[in-house]
Design a protein that fits this description.
The complex is a heterodimer of chains A (867) and B (476). Chain A has 867 residues and is of the alpha+beta class. Chain A is built from 27 helices and 16 strands. Among the domains of chain A are: 115 residues, no CATH class; 98 residues, no CATH class; 156 residues, Jelly Rolls (Sandwich), CATH 2.60.120; 59 residues, no CATH class. In chain A, the strands form 5 sheets. In chain A, strands 5, 8, 10, 11, 12 and 14 form a 6-stranded antiparallel β-sheet that branches. A 4-stranded antiparallel β-sheet of chain A has the order 7-15-9-13, with no helix packed on it. A two-stranded antiparallel sheet of chain A has the order 1-2. Chain A is globular. Chain B has 476 residues and is of the alpha/beta class. Chain B has a single domain, classed as Alkaline Phosphatase, subunit A (3-Layer(aba) Sandwich). Chain B has an 8-stranded mixed β-sheet with strand order 8-7-9-2-10-13-5-14. In chain B, strands 1-18-19 form a 3-stranded antiparallel β-sheet, with no helix packed on it. The chains are: A alpha+beta (867), B alpha/beta (476). Chains A and B meet through helix 22, helix 23, helix 25, helix 26 and helix 27 of A and helix 2, helix 6, helix 8, helix 9 and helix 12 of B.
């Protein structure tokens, strides 16, 4: 507000001054002949394209209009409000030309007249368009009358007014089916289940679209599990990804983020928590940033990272250039970045570094817009952060709500009202629409769900999607949402919901995280990490300290002198069941990466949605999707066999290093699968798992496991050649089979008459440093298990399963309705039926054919784009 | 937009252009991709590049920069030992290298050897961080996602053969425990977008399966493709549409199909290599990787990297038992590296292929980092050696390291840079920082060190701040 008033006074004063002091203005001033020559003579010694003093070049017509770091040099048609006039008149210090005699009155009057005549390129050109200058405060517009009868919501009135002024007739809205698909994907990130979709289409209530939006937003868990990916991109949050650092490499804020989304925490409080984490549950990971071991560039200290990220994410301001030096492309200076950084530093004064060279210059905490600065209650770091939070969320700071509204608009409509969501100084295609939305957002208590409701309920959102044309074309005219590509998470969740085959994330971790398990031996993560983490060598054996890895040759996989010693039974550590999960929890899957899930080391405000060759390779031939569809098709037909149950499951390590014994019945078993997986070891490379004293009991006594040969010996680990010392076990050098931390040994025991398999599992004792731990999970199966379902998961799935498909036409219909939100055409039905026909079982759909049809439909643009 | 892109732009909407252009050119049209600013490119002396990555810090005094040899004896002071191997003669009179590299010694007359590569100290050595720096030219963390060298080459030069990925990375397992995230952080195209991401092959023997229809599919692969075409052709919504986003999606599918069905896919299949040739390379996965690199370059790959693999404390990362580890690692690299050079030469490819063997830094028994710099020590080497495990270069040394280069228009039988004969054996002439090494490599490929990409309206140069200087002395 203050800013706006000052600005208007200045305009008024300028107009008065112009009226009083101007002489008769020259008629039709010519820029090139009269103005340029004058500027060249008087100004270019400092304001050339090379020197750009104050960021301003006056060398070309366009340069003059572009202005410099202080903003626009002139306002066409208004010389009094033009900075260049205030400078050459001396109304604003320093007078220009700096250090030289003032311009003469005739010279001044040429410039004044040129500006007042519209600052035209030539006398015959149209008046210049004023350079856009983004206001700080929100400017709530008057709502225009709607030119169209049904466009009555405030947002629609603004957009209808815009569209009709652009010359468009009243546009048609999308169909119910297309709307539902859009709304489900935008609010839940999931496709509408076919039953729900049909019910919605058949619903005759006039307000059914509004009700759908409200119903979808009402299911907070589903909403949160969609939007968390977008926030993770913005806030650089990645579960389970950390870097070596002397302090904190990185810290997850997943648990906080999930709960803030679920409880729809008002956005101003949200920003406050991120800028000023106080309680242990607060998201301090955001300010900690991403830190690697060793010295870093002065521009990448945690405090500078915090300045860059808070400015970019919350204000749409890019401080990256000026974290090193004064920016060449914006008005921001080195000291601006450092002043903001001081709010987030433990020091109350920061020394400036220019391109990593220390300067004899210091800053204290200060905001980018000095008019919002507040006195600091004390020089404590806590008070600085609290003050920063108060400034960012100050109601006079229109940048904060405007930036968020624009980001969400971009997420929902494909392109921001300000096209570049990280450069909020750029011109919106409708400043009125942006500021009306932002004003409503503030007035409504920074309610994000309410903002989503406003947009999704509007006719504007329900316009047909427009394919992207030339991104480089600056003259953008809004005609409706842009055609959007499904995100990696939406794509994968669609596969899971269509097939009912969800991935499993290992259980046992508080909060959000849990890592990937997706077939293969990628390694289970998600186990509790208690940090105690030292596996002590209870009694080091003679002959030196045992070490991890080892170089000298020992008999691979076999070990120990072979003395059998009893392992005292201890209460087994229960392995928490995993959970069926949506894609966002699956870290680092090749499918997710290929489809554009970013490495979140930097702020990612816009994902690359481009179709690429590596991505298509992953879709056409990747292990994960191919296998997933293979399983999923069987699941849809009720033909996926249940997961085998384990005979043995034990967790060892961390704070409980004692070996865990087992003794199980194998009288019915044909094969034995001995599996070891990592369970979030921080020193996985030092882990040396063991099957201790494993033996099979038969009618003729016991047979040590080492007497049998596995089908594949790649799971064996070479030992040091020395005796084995087992962590948490006092007896030295028991017989044991050494295996790798992630390993599978398969033994064929068919026809051998074994009745029991017994032994213990544990780790070799290795020296570990502070903070290091090794822990693993050991399993025995007698049927081949799914590697991500070694422990039976909790039965609950993110969506209830669909019906088991019995007939071929039913299956084709299901695929089209679920994937595309519509029935197949007769031609499509014929194609699908031919693909699903099973020669061996007439009338029953073929699982392979169903996998192929699913794949083919998933590859089409109609599936991968949101219309 | 360049002329080519303008041309494509002008015909968007016509289905006819589908088969005409590379997927990469289409990617540029998305508009979100950073604009490439070409600085006046030097004439290229190489079309392809193979980087042989000695991951974990290769001890230069044990390989390509041998110093005075001291045999192991209990009681010898660690500081007395500069090399744990004697030097051997090579095919070039004035160049000696370390024992255990006899085959490479025979091809030194084709090599340019830099002995004065200098890595930064960064206060505290972390292998993956230095590797990030070597592979991108920038020290993490960075405020933008900087791309891997291979991605820069792929983006700038595009594929030589559209059926072979332009950037292939062989041998690095991406799940390596504590430094997993750090290793992944630079195996990426960063802001260049996934079109230029590395095509990752962990095990060379599995390479064929990466470009062969999936085993679960078997003969159904072609059926699937036909079904996809039928489904696509019959979709009522998009039948007559020529929109760019959809076209590029279809185009990417075509590109993948071409790669999977092209005769070039055979290059990935090591089982097609005659047994004798395979044996010449088969010292290890690295050796097989060298063979695969040769086959891929023959087929038209642009940038191929083969690593000995980084896993903390493994392979070249010898914190103890350094001498024995060197024996093992030299066995791993000696034959395949030499054979790769001879094979490329035989096939007439060496002149137009630059081969670079490098590591993130060197090693020393005493100095961590550089003398006089504050770098925290991470080794527990005793002052006096009592057992063979103490014998070797166990500390990270950044003041000198060796880089071996072959072909690609560089001088042959040439040594650049000079290191001291006595500890700390530091660089005394012609230091080569990473940006100068990169500038020299890029130069061979016709890429100027000042080439840059406009990211968030600022230039990000292919060598740090555009300051890399080409080492002209290396060029013939």
């Amino acid at each position: 507000m203050m800013v706006a008033i000052h600005f208007r006074l200045a305009v008024l004063a300028g107009v008065v001054a112009a009226a009083l002091f101007s002489q008769v203005p020259p008629e039709g001033v010519d820029y090139h002949r009269q103005v340029h020559s004058l500027l060249a003579l008087k100004c270019l010694s400092c304001h050339s394209q090379e020197k750009r003093s104050g960021g301003l070049s006056l060398a070309t017509y366009q340069d003059v209009l572009n202005g410099g770091r202080s903003g626009a040099a002139l306002r066409p048609g208004n010389s009094g409000a033009s900075l260049i006039m205030q400078r050459i008149m001396g109304a604003l210090e320093p007078r220009m030309p700096f250090g030289l005699p003032a311009l003469t009155e005739p010279q001044i009057s040429i410039i004044r007249a040129w500006i007042d005549q519209g600052a035209r390129a030539t006398a015959a050109s149209a008046p210049a368009k004023a350079k856009w200058e983004a206001p700080l405060a929100l400017e709530r517009p008057q709502l225009p009358e709607s030119p169209w009868k049904n466009w009555t919501d405030p947002l629609d009135r603004l957009v209808a007014d815009y569209l009709s002024k652009q010359g468009f007739p009243e546009p048609q809205l999308i169909s119910d089916a297309v709307f539902a698909r859009r709304a489900y994907l935008d609010l839940w990130g999931l496709l509408p289940p076919p039953e729900d979709l049909r019910r919605f289409i058949n619903d005759t209530a006039a307000d059914k679209r509004r009700r759908l939006v409200s119903q979808l937003l009402g299911e907070s868990r589903k909403y949160a599990e969609h939007w968390i990916s977008w926030w993770n991109d913005l806030l650089r949050n990645e579960e389970g990804v950390t870097y070596y650092s002397e302090t904190a490499g990185r810290k997850s804020i997943t648990a906080w983020l999930l709960s803030a989304l679920e409880s729809n925490t008002p956005y101003d409080q949200w920003v406050s928590k991120l800028l000023n984490p106080v309680s242990p549950a607060d998201p301090d990971g955001f300010l900690i940033g991403v830190n690697w071991r060793g010295t870093v560039s002065a521009s990448q200290t945690p405090a500078l990272q915090a300045a860059q990220n808070t400015a970019q994410v919350f204000l749409g301001i890019n401080l990256k250039c000026n974290s090193c030096h004064d920016s060449f492309i914006s008005r921001w200076k080195l000291k601006d970045a450092y002043s903001l950084a001081t709010f987030f530093s433990v020091e109350d004064e920061l020394r400036l570094y220019r391109c990593d060279v220390a300067q004899d210059q210091f800053t204290t905490a200060g905001f980018l817009y000095p008019e919002l600065n507040r006195p600091l209650p004390s020089d404590s770091a806590e008070d600085r952060r609290a003050t920063a939070a108060a400034i960012f969320t100050d109601p006079r700071n229109g940048r904060m709500p405007r930036t968020l509204v624009n980001r969400i608009w971009q997420r929902l409509l494909g392109r921001g009202i300000v096209a570049n969501v990280d450069e909020m100084d750029e011109e919106p295609w409708s400043p009125e629409t942006l500021d009306w939305m932002a004003s409503e957002f503030v007035a409504g208590g920074y309610d994000i769900k309410s903002l989503l409701t406003t947009i999704l309920s509007s006719r504007t959102y329900q316009l047909a999607a427009v394919p992207r044309k030339d991104e480089l074309n600056k003259e953008y005219v809004f005609q409706g949402p842009e055609l959007r590509r499904l995100t990696a998470e939406q794509f994968a969740d669609a596969v899971a919901s269509i097939t009912g085959d969800w991935h499993v994330v290992a259980g046992g971790r508080a909060g959000g995280g849990g890592g990937a398990v997706r077939g293969g031996l990628a390694g289970i993560t998600g186990a509790p990490s208690d940090g105690a983490g030292i596996i002590p060598a209870v009694r080091p054996a003679s002959g030196g300290t045992p070490v991890a890895g080892g170089g000298a040759q020992g008999a691979a996989g076999q070990a120990g002198a072979g003395r059998r010693v009893p392992v005292a039974p201890a209460a087994p550590v229960p392995i928490p069941p995993g959970n069926y999960s949506r894609e966002w929890r699956i870290a680092g899957s090749s499918l997710g990466r290929a489809l554009g899930r970013p490495i979140r080391d930097q702020v990612n405000s816009t994902r690359d949605a481009q179709a690429t060759t590596p991505q298509a390779l992953e879709l056409v031939n990747g292990e994960s999707l191919t296998h997933w569809l293979w399983r999923g098709a069987r699941k849809m037909l009720g033909e996926l066999p249940p997961e085998p149950a384990s005979l043995v499951s034990r967790q060892v390590g961390g704070g409980r290093p004692a070996p865990a014994p087992f003794d199980v019945d194998v009288s019915q078993s044909q094969k034995l699968y001995l599996i070891v997986q990592d369970a979030l070891s921080t020193a996985a490379d030092k882990a040396a798992p063991l099957w201790i004293q494993p033996e099979l009991v038969g009618p003729n006594g016991t047979t040590p496991l080492s007497a049998l040969t596995p089908l594949d010996n790649s799971g064996f680990r070479e030992g040091s050649g020395g005796p084995i010392t087992v962590a948490g076990m006092s007896e030295s050098n028991p017989s044991a089979v050494r295996v790798k931390l992630s390993s599978v040994l398969v033994y064929d025991i068919a026809g051998k008459g074994f009745t029991r398999f017994r032994g213990a599992v544990g780790f070799e004792a290795v020296p570990l440093s502070q903070g290091e731990n090794v822990q693993g999970r050991f399993f025995v199966f007698d049927q081949q298990p799914s590697m991500d379902r070694l422990v039976p998961p909790n039965p609950e799935t993110p969506l209830p399963p669909g019906p088991v498909l019995r007939s071929v036409p039913e299956a084709v219909h299901r695929v089209y309705w679920h994937a595309l939100g519509r029935a197949p055409t007769p031609a499509e039905l014929r194609i699908g039926e031919a693909a699903l026909a099973d020669r061996n079982r007439p009338g029953r759909p073929s699982a392979e054919g169903l996998a192929d049809l699913l794949w083919a439909v998933l590859m089409t643009p109609e599936f991968q784009f949101i219309r | 937009m360049n002329a080519e892109e303008r041309l494509i732009q002008s015909i968007i909407g016509r289905r006819g252009f589908l088969g005409a252009t590379a997927a990469a050119a289409l990617a540029a049209l998305a508009g979100r991709e950073p604009e490439l600013v070409r600085a006046a490119p030097p004439p290229a002396t190489a079309d392809s590049i193979i980087v042989l990555w000695m991951a974990g810090g290769m001890a230069q005094t044990e390989t390509f920069d041998p110093k005075r040899y001291t045999p192991f004896e209990p009681g010898v002071r660690t500081e007395r030992v500069l090399s744990t191997f004697p030097a051997i003669d090579t095919s070039v009179d004035h160049i000696k290298i370390s024992q255990g590299l006899e085959r490479i010694a025979k091809v030194m007359d084709r090599a340019s050897l830099i002995r004065t590569f200098q890595a930064p100290d960064l206060g505290y050595i972390l292998h993956s961080r230095h590797q990030f720096h070597w592979h991108t030219g920038y020290v993490p963390p960075q405020s933008v996602a900087v791309p891997h060298l291979g991605s820069v080459v792929a983006k700038t030069l595009r594929p030589r053969n559209p059926s072979v990925p332009p950037f292939i990375s062989i041998g690095q397992n991406m799940e390596i425990g504590g430094e997993t995230a750090s290793i992944k952080a630079f195996h990426t195209a960063g802001f260049l977008g996934t079109e230029y991401a590395p095509f990752l092959i962990t095990d060379p023997q599995d390479a064929a399966s990466a470009v062969r229809p999936h085993a679960d599919l078997g003969s159904r692969f072609q059926n699937r493709r036909r079904l996809y075409e039928q489904v696509l052709a019959n979709q009522p919504v998009y039948q007559y549409s020529g929109d760019f986003q959809r076209e590029s999606l279809i185009k990417s599918m075509d590109a993948a199909d071409r790669l999977l069905t092209s005769p070039s896919a055979k290059a990935f299949d090591l089982s097609l290599e005659p047994g004798r040739n395979f044996d010449l390379y088969n010292t290890s996965r690295f050796g097989q990787g060298c063979l695969l690199a040769r086959r891929l370059v023959e087929a038209g790959a642009r940038y191929v990297e083969v690593t000995t693999e980084y896993i903390p404390f493994r392979y070249w990362d010898s914190h103890q038992d350094g001498h024995e580890r060197q024996v093992m690692m030299k066995k791993v690299i000696d034959a395949p590296v030499a054979q790769l050079i001879l094979d490329l030469e035989d096939r007439g490819l060496l002149n137009r292929t630059l081969v670079v063997l490098a590591s993130e830094f060197g090693r020393d028994a005493i100095t961590e980092g550089k003398v006089g710099k504050e770098v925290r020590d991470q080794s527990t080497t005793p002052d006096v050696m009592t057992q063979p495990t103490h014998y070797g270069m166990h500390r990270h040394f950044t003041a000198a390291g060796s880089v071996l280069l072959f072909g690609g228009g560089l001088k042959r039988g040439f040594v650049y840079g000079k290191t001291a004969e006595e500890r700390p054996c530091t660089t005394i002439e012609n230091p080569v920082p990473v940006e100068d090494l990169h500038a020299t490599m890029y130069h061979a490929l016709g890429i100027a060190p000042t080439q840059n990409f406009m990211v968030e309206k600022r230039p990000v140069y292919v060598t740090r701040d555009g300051k890399g200087k080409v080492i002209n002395e290396l060029y013939a």
